[in-house]
Structure formats: structure tokens, C-alpha cells
Amino acid sequence: MKTITTALISSMVFAGLAAPALADGATNLKAAEVFLAANKKKAHIITTKSGLEYKVIKLGKGIKPTTADSVRVNYKGFLANGTVFDQSKEPIEFGVTQVIPGWTEAVQLMPVGSKYRLWVHPALAYGESSPSPMIPPNSMLIFDVELLGIPGK
């Protein structure tokens, strides 16, 4: 297995390269923490109390959803190494609380019409328990999310 040191991860982050996603959960967690610590220092990155990091790409003017709502979105999910693990091919609808905690938190911050990029710490994503072989344990996940609407509102 490839060994990645904190110095290597830091140099990759500061060179603008994403930290790789690896199969080892402990290494992935360390890589995520190093990456997020550097990422939050960049311009226009907002960090919430939970550690969710996001950047507003486009700010909508609509209402914000609550945990009682369903939302209609377009999204693309990828790992820190750029590997796409999921994306909507057409708008998809789901309950705000039916997704990972990072999404639940982020979507409630978004007015309808917004597009955000999210950097989701493993603790706000799947942690050690990956739902797919495409997502290694303790992976930081990155999402581009466009909030299209709140059905019924």
C-alpha cells in the first residue's frame, strides 16, 4: 500500500492538487483533515461549526428548505482525487433528512436557485462505512449542488 505522509499531503494541497483517496480509512481521515484545514483558509470558503466547508458559486433568491421539506436538486459527487462517484442525470428529489449529515446541513443554508460546492468531512459523510466500493472508508466527499426547488412551496 502506498504511504502518504502529512508533508506530502500538505505539499499536494498547497500546490492545488487534491489529496488522493486511498483504501486505508485512517490515512483517508488524516488526508481529509489536512486538506480541509488548508482549504478553509482559501478565499470565499465558509466553514460551519460542524466543519462543513462550502463555497457559494451562485446565490439564489428563493426560500431556504427546512428539515421538514423535500428538495429538487442537480448534483455531482466526487472524491478528493477527482473520481466522480455519483451525479444526477436529471433533477432528483429527496427529503432533506434522507441524505448524509453534510448534505442535510448544507441544503438548509441554500436559497432556491443557489449552486454551492461542498467539502464534506468524513464524519459528516459516510465515515468508516462506505455504501459503495467507489467511496473508500473515511473519504472526504466533494459535491457541486444546485438547489432547483422545494416541491410544494
Written account of the structure:
- Strand 3 and strand 4 (84-87) form a beta hairpin.
- The chain contains three helices and seven strands, in the order ααβββββαββ.
- The chain has a single domain, classed as Chitinase A, domain 3.
- Strands 1, 2, 3, 4, 5, 6 and 7 form a seven-stranded antiparallel β-sheet that branches.
- It is of the alpha+beta class.
- The protein starts with 5 loop residues before the first helix and ends with a strand.
- The longest helix is centred in the first third of the chain and has 15 residues, at 25-39.
Q: Which properties best describe this structure?
A:
153 residues, alpha+beta, 3 helices, 22% helix, 27% strand, globular
Low-confidence stretches: 1-22
What's the CATH class, please? Alpha Beta
Number of strands: 7
Q: What is the N-to-C order of secondary-structure elements (H for helix, E for strand)?
A: HHEEEEEHEE
CATH topology: Chitinase A, domain 3
Instruction: Let me know the average pLDDT.
Output: 87
Outline, from the CA principal axes? globular
Distance linking N and C termini: 51 Å
Q: Quaternary state, please?
A: single chain
Count of all domains: 1
Rg, Å, rounded:
15 Å
Strand content: 25-35%
Q: State the major sheet.
A: 7 strands, antiparallel
Structural class: alpha+beta
Helical fraction: 10-25%
Count of alpha/pi helices: 3
Can you tell me the CATH architecture? Answer: Roll
